[in-house]
Amino acid sequence: xxxxxxxxxxxxxxxxxxxxxxxxxxxxxxxxxxxxxxxxxxxxxxxxxxxxxxxxxxxxxxxxxxxxxxxxxxxxxxxxxxxxxxxxxxxxxxxxxxxxxxxxxxxxxxxxxxxxxxxxxxxxxxxxxxxxxxxxxxxxxxxxxxxxxxxxxxxxxxxxxxxxxxxxxxxxxx
Length: 174
Description:
Largest sheet: 2 strands, antiparallel
Strand content: 25-35%
CATH class: Alpha Beta
């Protein structure tokens, strides 16, 4: 089975937040505190003022703890491994939020439903890139299709930085 994954070249990310803005616009989210794509700022361990910007979204785990925890089957896996929320079935119980090991799911108090990255599934089904990828000004986000068995259990996200200020960071997939 072919799956899609998002890869991030952190050497290119400048923290412009265009991915966050594009995501929120695509999903119609107006609340400033809610975004399925989040950009974090990490500082070097020695206190150097240089910062690393770290975009993060849902990892579309397999198996996905959010799907297992959802009592109404609102959390689903679509084609190409994309985990998404069926808003018609979501009751806002937040079980998926508790189950997610990466904090990738948030509650929207306006809709009383959960929000998460679904790689802009409607766009992907039409052959388009997710909004965050298409609007990234530095082209640091890559959306690729791969064979399921080739998806690594760990993604090496940070490769190198000036003067080795930052440690390598690995995010383990569930």
